[in-house]
Amino acid sequence: MEGKGTFQNSLQVKDAFERMTxxxxxxxxxxxxxxxxxxxxxxxxxTGAAVLLRDFEGTVSVLNANPRNLQLMTSLGxxxxxxxxxxxxxxPTQRRQVTAHLDNCAETTAATRKDQAxxxxxxxxxxxxxxxxxxxxxxxVIDFLEKELENRSGG
Length: 155
What we know:
Layout: H1 7-22, E1 27-31, H2 40-54, E2 59-63, H3 67-75, E3 83-85, H4 92-100, H5 113-130, H6 132-152
Parallel strand pairs: 1-2, 2-3
Helix pairs in contact: 1-2, 2-5, 5-6
């Protein structure tokens, strides 16, 4: 991850997870060395990917989480569904190869507001489904997003 992990780029991350899973990939590594902070939508995106991969006996490993990101993941219980390597000792060769090609990543098209809202809702629901504490933390956000989507669809 290059830069902040937020609702603004998490839909592209989700799409990448889905494309790669459909292509047969079952092991994912998310390197947070260059990610200073993550918001709840990004964390929910990682959660959704890890839950999806459970069905395929796959894993999501997270490397190099700084103390703040590590605390966020731990407080939400993500350390139980993600393989967390705070020291970044796993996959050294692959990390160097990927980092060398980050500048070549293509820009993606912007999502519609509805697509973005649906994704943010899905990410927060994934977090809420992990624990009762998370359900309490995110219920207001979930309720708000459900109402917003309902109003957009005219229902």
